[in-house]
Amino acid sequence: MDDIGFILTTYLVTFGSVALLAWRVISRGRSLARQLPDEDKPWI
Amino acid sequence: MVNVTTTASSSTSAAGPAATSPTHAGTRFTRALGIITIAAMLSLAAFGLVFSPADVVQGESVRILYIHVGTVWVAYLAFVITAVSSAAFLWKRTTSLTWDRIAGASAEIGVAFMALTLFAGALWGRLSWGTFWVWDARVTTTAFLFITYVGYLAVRGLGGSQQQRGRRSAVVALLAVLEIPLVHFSVKLWRSVHQDASVADRTTNVTLDGLMLFTLMLALVAFTLVYVWWVLLRQRVLAMQDALDDKGLDYALAERRREVTADALPGSVR
Amino acid sequence: MNAAAQAVVPLGVEPVIRLVEAVAVLGKFPALAGTTLTVRRGEIVLLRGANGAGKTTLLRLCAGLVPLVRGSGWVVGCDLATQRESLRSRVGLLGHANGLYGDLSVSENVRFWGATAGAARHEVEAALERMGLAGRLADVKVDRLSAGQKRRTSLACLVARRAQLWLLDEPHAGLDATGRDDLDATVRSAALAGATVVVASHELERAGALATRVVDIVGGQAHEHAAEPAPRAEPASDTDGRGLQ
Amino acid sequence: MNAWQVARLVAAKDLRVELRSRVVLNQVLPFAGLVMVMFAFALDKDNILQRVSPGLIWLATVFSLLILVQRTFAIESADGALDALRGAGVSPAGVFFGKSLALAVQLLTLEVLLTGLAVVLYSASFSPGGAVVMVATVLPATMGLGFVGTLYGGLAIGASGRETLLPLLLFPVVAPVLIGATRATEAALGAGGAATSDGWPWVALLTVFAVLFGVGGSLAFGPLIEE
Fold first, then answer.
1. In this complex, do D88 and C117 lie within 8 Å of one another by their Cβ atoms?
2. Which end of chain A has fewer CB atoms at under 10 Å, N or C?
3. Whether residue C238 has pLDDT greater than 60
């Protein structure tokens, strides 16, 4: 069944990429936030 | 997506008495947005894969379309936002780099989603047209758009001062706005001359019933939420990156000034 | 620091260069770390300092080629933060690179760079003459020249540009004895004619004899030399501040 | 000096450098000719060469454009001349137009040669009306390529010395020229049964392209080469 394989691959790749992007930006945010004082975080 | 959950829940506990300063880039708003986004994405998976029916014409492959349409929408939205923020940056470039960062963050996720679009589109095309790629005007333009914004990101990484990065990349983004309609129009004209490649028109008719339409809308909403959440956070991360560079400059300046006391000045009295 | 002392400028006489705590970076490295410097019209200022002290960046900052990151600065009346483009045509920089086109002859190069500043043909001829390039050398391709001859050509281009402010980065490097004499004479007469000259050099004997004032550059900052030579008389005529006519 | 004087000065300088060094004449032209011959080896099938000759002419032109752009900025960066040009305070738009013009003249030479080669090697032929379309095609296409080449060349090579970035930036942008010029040339040559009048919409597209990038480039070139 080509269809099932193709569909699952699409969903896996898409959701996986989104999760990876989210994880990257969160972990980068954490490591930078630890290095910087509050005045450099204007959104607080 | 699991990682988003961890942040969202653990961030409250991280704000203990010792750490009044947050150790992440989130706010209450982005955390709430993150949770809603996860919910939307999970229900998209559920509706897209399970609840929604197969299409009468296309069969199961229509499930790929939810992803394909959702990502391409976000990619185009992202590139529009990049262009608008670049123009805004050039408009008042004297002070704030915020517009530049929004443009950069938006382009990054735009490129990522465009890659997903092309990927999902190729798999869908294989299922319904029997071919991974057609030289259809829309597909070709999208591919060019993708390469153009990969180039834009490369220009952002060229180095130099923050202002220089902002100005350069904003100019390149606006040139891309000039380029895209030209590429699209020429490819379209090209395809209309060569009628033989109209495979794209053969089996695109999808009859959407209520649940399918709902799933499609859900996909648009879910991916837009991902986009908004990501750009908000990424833009903050880029701001912190720039602030850290400034801190680096402060540190380097102090180091540099210390050279004066280290070296004896030749024959001068201070 | 002598910032306060230097900030005292005679009223009504706008200095040619006025930098206050200027910071400029190369990549992420602060080549200038808060430089305060004032140069008045007609002066010949020698910048001394070790390699990497920031002399080149200081000159490029004054030429409008490097952006001012912090602090403030004015050069020939233009604000470095906002008017870099308009100051450039009034300033001449002799950098490390000569800025010559190797496939063109000496006279073609000088004519090109002179033309960018609107120099007439006779002014170009005069510039070639002054740097000893008028004869056989004028038609030689720059690629075939020695390092010293290229430097002469580059200087001739600078002369033809008739700048108000001359910024010379290691101008003596590679020049032979006559070349140095030609250079010194050119600089002196330019200053007499009302131009201002800032020279960065390691050739302290040469450049020291030429200079009216010496500034030490250390760690990206400027320090006035203690034993300052007697101030030169303010050049008389030449109100438009042009160099060699 | 106003922008047009600067443009004339820079274009004359670039062309004089080329006349002296003969790099384009001795290296780029032979390269382009070689590409045409290599295509003949690679696509050796019945009448296919005659049919695809318009595309091959413009493909060879676009590849050569890459080399020409690298050359035109190598001249500037070899001894810090681009820096000196910025330092001289001349109009960046003038420099842009000057370099574009010099580039276009060199490209034009190349295109004439390539078209001649297509006639000889691929037995392409023009009707009188086709020749008119061809001329109307070549002029805006060449100007467009010159503008785009100078613009992105200045960014990738002039300001930062990243020659590898150039094709990534350049090729997506020149796609409309490649498509438009190829289709118009097909019409001019009557390749694949195209009618001569089919060429005119493409000529219009090429003209729009050249005008847009001429204007856009003259505005953008300054900020792009600035530090």
1. yes
2. N
3. no
Kindly report, residue by residue over A1-44, the tens digit of the pLDDT: 568 888 999 999 999 999 999 999 999 998 888 888 877 777 77
- Is the distance from CB of D84 to CB of C89 less than 8 angstroms? no
What residues of chain D lie within 8 A of the CB of B148, using their CB? 172-173
Measured in angstroms, the CA of D169 and the nearest CA of chain B are apart by 6
Chain C residues with beta carbon closer than 8 angstroms to that of D83? 65, 95, 97, 99
User: Containing H/E element for B219?
Assistant: helix B210-262
**What is the structure's pLDDT at B207?**
63
Which chain B residues are closer than 8 Å to C226 by Cβ?
A: 267-269
* Residue D13 confidence (pLDDT): 95
Q: How far apart are CA C42 and CA C39, in angstroms?
A: 9
**Residue C169 belongs to some domain of the structure:** yes
Query: Model confidence at B170, in pLDDT bands (50, 70, 90)?
Result: very high
**Cβ atoms of residues D33 and D173 within 8 Å:** no
Mind telling me how many Å the CA of C88 is from chain D's nearest CA?
A: 5
Instruction: For residue range D170-216, list pLDDT tens digits in order.
Output: 999 999 999 999 999 999 988 777 788 888 989 999 999 999 999 99
Cβ neighbours of residue D188 closer than 8 Å, sequence gap 6 or more: D54, D126, D130, D131, D133, D134, D137, D196, D199
Backbone angles phi, psi at A17, to 5 degrees: -65, -45
Helices vs. strands in chain C: H and E counts, helices first: 8, 10
What distance lies between CA B86 and its chain's CA centroid?
Answer: 15
Task: Please indicate if any CB of chain B lies within 8 Å of the CB of A17.
Answer: yes
**Rounded CA gap, B217 and B199, in Å?**
27
Do A and C touch, 3+ Cβ pairs within 8 Å? The answer is no
Give residue-wise pLDDT tens across range C175-210: 889 889 989 999 998 888 889 999 998 888 888 888
ipTM rounded to 2 decimals: 0.83
Contact at CB, D79 and C117, closer than 8 angstroms: no
Binary contact (A22, B234; C-beta < 8 A): no
Report the CATH number at residue C211: 3.40.50.300
User: Which tokens go with C87?
Assistant: 């100051």
Q: Which of D96, D165, D169 is the best mutation test for B, with the most CBs of B within 10 A?
A: D169
Query: Is the residue at C209 inside a domain?
Result: yes
- Structural domain that includes position C198: 42-68+80-226
**B and D touch per CB criterion (3+ pairs under 8 A):** yes
Q: Using an 8 Å CB-CB cutoff, list chain C residues near D84.
A: 93, 95, 97, 99, 113
pLDDT tens per residue, range B35-49:
999 999 999 999 888
C155 lies in some domain = yes
| Number of structural domains chain C divides into | 1
Does C104 touch chain D if contact means CB atoms closer than 8 Å? yes
Bridge pairing between strands C213-218 and C221-224: antiparallel
* Higher-scoring residue by pLDDT: C156, B188: C156
Show which subunits contact B, needing at least 3 CB pairs below 8 angstroms.
Answer: A, C, D
Task: Give the orientation angle of helix B162-193 with respect to helix D165-189, to 10 degrees.
Answer: 20
Once rounded to an integer, what is the mean pLDDT over residues D99-116?
A: 95
pLDDT at C225: 65
pLDDT of C245 strictly over 70? no
Test B268 with C30 for CB contact under 8 angstroms. Answer: no
B249/C33 CB distance under 8 A: no
If you classify domain B30-242 with CATH, what class do you get? mainly alpha
What's the CA gap between B130 and B181, in Å, rounded?
29
Q: C230 exposed, middle or buried (CB, 10 Å; 0-12, 13-18, 19+)?
A: exposed
Residue C15 located in a structural domain: no
Report whether D210 contacts D140 (CB < 8 A). yes
Strands C91-94 and C29-39: unpaired
